[in-house]
Design a protein that fits this description.
Distance between the termini: 19 Å
Shape: globular
Structural class: alpha/beta
Order of helices and strands: EEEHEEEHEHEEEHHHHEHEH
CATH class of the largest domain: Alpha Beta
Largest sheet: 5 strands, mixed
CATH architecture of the largest domain: 2-Layer Sandwich
Number of domains: 2
CATH superfamily of the largest domain: ATPase, nucleotide binding domain
Strand order of the largest sheet: 3-2-1-4-7
Number of helices: 9
Number of strands: 12
């Protein structure tokens, strides 16, 4: 049995999978806001509860915002800032008394969709989360690519490529820079662009609904968003050339992205043809937690941490 934990800013989800990937048990609770020790205890309690009910012990994988520094072992680059600088892996190992594997939440998403999701059997696979932030993960030959610095797939904190005058200097990012891809392509970024155009605030779902009713401002805002998304993904294609790009997060539910973005992307990919598939996640908002469970190899009883 594999247990996956998805540690989010507002909720913590846990799932237990059997060897075939079928769900044995699922739990979801609110994240203790601003309380690191309570977060550790909540994760441990979810594991204890699932194992107590199922009567067996499982491997444990955890998906987190940010990633573990290879130099210090502490979490860094998390937009849930209470986690930054904390030894979350070691703290969970001490609390649970066994190995725990930790990976970035976007990496877990990509692994899930490459394993048994929308990109099953494809390689390379680039997984993209378009939500309150923008993350990415890379899977090659069914294996998660972590990278030398444990930041493989972090496309959201690169500058928006082929910038136009109205893209510059770009919105400020929590990372300390301006004009990161994340600032343009996250949900709040879409809302900001619409508000700048109209003077009124709408969330991403409302903007998509307005576009469906042929609202001119919503259509223009979404078209601008799609063109920026195409530029960002074309940069990835030019470097990695994935077979499939899987979109997750709230904005992945905007259906028109899957027809408009590939068309825009052809302008920027350095090839005479672009066959890269762009598809929505099969497992939806459960992909991250499933990917955390899949951090362990086929023999889920193997030891080791990362």
């Amino acid at each position: 049995m594999r247990i996956g934990i998805d540690l989010g800013g507002t909720k913590i989800e846990a799932v237990a999978l059997d060897p075939a990937g079928s769900v044995l048990q699922r739990r979801r609770v609110a994240t203790p806001l601003g309380d690191y020790r309570a977060t550790i205890e909540t994760i441990a309690s979810l594991v204890d509860s699932i194992e107590g009910e199922l009567g067996t012990q499982g491997s444990i994988g955890v998906g987190t915002p940010g990633s573990l520094s290879k130099r210090t072992g502490v979490l860094r680059n998390s937009n849930s800032t209470v986690l930054n600088g904390k030894s979350i892996g070691e703290d969970l190992i001490r609390r649970l008394g066994r190995p725990v594997r930790i990976a970035n939440d976007a990496d877990c998403f990509a692994l899930s969709e490459a394993r048994d999701g929308a990109a099953a059997g494809a390689s390379p696979v680039f997984g993209v989360i378009l939500g309150t932030g923008v993350g990415g993960g890379l899977v090659v030959g069914g294996a998660l690519v972590e990278g030398r610095n444990a930041i493989a797939g972090e496309w959201g904190h690169n500058p928006l490529p082929w910038p136009r005058l109205d893209d510059l200097p770009g919105p400020p990012c929590y990372c300390g820079k301006r004009g990161c891809i994340e600032t343009f392509l996250c949900g709040p970024g879409l809302s900001r662009a619409f508000e700048q155009r109209t003077g009124r605030f709408c969330d991403a779902a409302e903007i998509a609904a307005l576009a469906g009713r042929d609202d001119a401002a919503a259509l223009a805002t979404l078209s601008e968003y799609e063109e920026r998304l195409a530029r960002g993904l074309a940069h990835v294609v030019n470097i990695v050339d994935p077979e499939v790009i899987v979109l997750g997060g709230g904005l992945s539910n905007v259906e028109r992205l899957y027809t408009h973005v590939p068309r825009f992307m052809r302008r920027y990919v350095f090839s005479d043809e672009v066959d890269t598939k762009i598809v929505p996640a099969k497992h939806g908002d459960s992909s991250g937690v499933r990917g955390a469970a899949w951090l362990w190899p086929e023999d889920a009883s193997s030891g080791g941490t990362r």
